[in-house]
């Protein structure tokens, strides 16, 4: 997930109807709390959202978001993605980490984001005004996250999510939506409802927005705010990272979105993406926790373990 600044090859999986979409959610009448509940140890988002690998599909999610006409227009006019792409990404990931690992600060961050986006609006080329906080685009920014979680697990985790894990992640994304003050009417009631909503949005609402093409075009380029003396040294690294980034970005888009953007995808591309995913998925669990997790996530996990140790010591103190 990000904030505003805030046709598959033969044999390749489609994102519109993967087999892993099968589990259905419990009835919509479940009890709901008025006040959002912060995340903590035991939630799957606590385990997964802080991993650096969770950010691998970040560009494809951003592209799905800016393909929405309202989001693309606001980002085009007001975002710093052209002048400070690394800074924009760092701020977005820090905000996402706060949603999951910030405790009560997550609730405050949800309110802060609403306030920050409240005045953001822009007029597109056809004279239509779009507001960042309109219900549909605000919900779309959040709800692309479940697609990203399922897709990242399919390609870059040691194993795809099973039915029980998908259900838990879906329920946690509903909880996260309430932290971000997404209108309740915009939250799908079940996993099948979600995929019906998602596929309809991709097919009938998203457009090949110029911002999406710009983001793809930036891949492989030296960021504009890198000092001139360093640019020749950075250029080969940027080009290599850009090739891998583009492969991952294009490959983790839904096939219909690729078609709208005119992005080819072959069986050989799919094989390369699967190979890269296997290397990442098998290698990541071997890394130390400090290296696997982003800083906010690592510190939160460390603090939670320290709190558990303190509580155990208090529970067994001499009386």
UniProtKB/TrEMBL annotation:
Q: Does the keyword Cell membrane apply?
A: no
Q: What is this protein called?
A: Oxygenase MpaB family protein
Residues annotated as domain ER-bound oxygenase mpaB/mpaB'/Rubber oxygenase catalytic:
46-280
Q: Does the keyword Oxidoreductase apply?
A: yes
Kindly report, in one word, the top-level EC class recorded for this enzyme.
oxidoreductase
Known EC number(s)?
Answer: 1.-.-.-
A Gene Ontology molecular-function term? oxidoreductase activity
Record InterPro entries: MPAB/Lcp_cat_dom
Residue spans making up a coiled coil are none
Task: Specify where the region named Disordered lies, as residue ranges.
Answer: 1-40
UniProt superkingdom: Bacteria
* Keywords noted in UniProt: Oxidoreductase
Q: Mind telling me which Pfam families this protein's record contains? A: MPAB_Lcp_cat
């Amino acid at each position: 997930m990000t904030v505003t600044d805030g046709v598959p090859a033969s044999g390749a999986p489609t994102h519109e109807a993967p087999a892993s979409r099968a589990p259905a959610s419990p009835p919509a009448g479940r009890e709901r709390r008025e006040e959002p509940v912060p995340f903590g140890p035991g939630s799957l988002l606590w385990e997964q959202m802080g991993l650096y690998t969770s950010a691998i599909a970040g560009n494809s999610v951003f592209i799905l978001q800016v393909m929405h006409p309202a989001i693309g227009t606001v980002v085009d006019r007001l975002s710093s993605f052209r002048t400070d792409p690394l800074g924009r990404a760092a701020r977005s990931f820090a905000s996402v980490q706060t949603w999951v690992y910030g405790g009560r600060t997550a609730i405050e961050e949800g309110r802060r984001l609403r306030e920050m986006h409240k005045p953001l609006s822009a007029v597109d080329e056809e004279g239509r005004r779009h507001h960042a906080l309109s219900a549909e685009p605000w919900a779309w920014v959040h709800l692309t996250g479940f697609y990203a979680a399922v897709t990242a697990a399919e390609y870059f985790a040691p194993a795809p999510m099973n039915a029980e894990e998908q259900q838990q992640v879906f329920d946690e994304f509903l909880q996260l939506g309430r932290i971000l003050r997404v209108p309740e009417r915009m939250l799908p009631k079940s996993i099948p409802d979600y995929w019906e909503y998602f596929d309809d949005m991709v097919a009938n609402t998203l457009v090949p927005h110029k911002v999406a093409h710009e983001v793809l075009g930036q891949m492989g380029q030296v960021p504009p705010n890198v000092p001139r003396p360093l640019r020749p040294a950075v250029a080969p690294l940027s080009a290599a990272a850009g090739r891998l980034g583009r492969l991952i970005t294009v490959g983790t888009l839904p096939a219909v979105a690729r078609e709208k953007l005119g992005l080819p995808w072959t069986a050989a591309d799919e094989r390369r993406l699967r190979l890269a995913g296997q290397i990442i998925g098998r290698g990541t669990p071997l890394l130390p926790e400090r290296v696997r997790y982003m800083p906010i996530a690592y510190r939160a996990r460390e603090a939670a373990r320290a709190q558990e140790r303190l509580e155990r010591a208090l529970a067994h103190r001499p009386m």
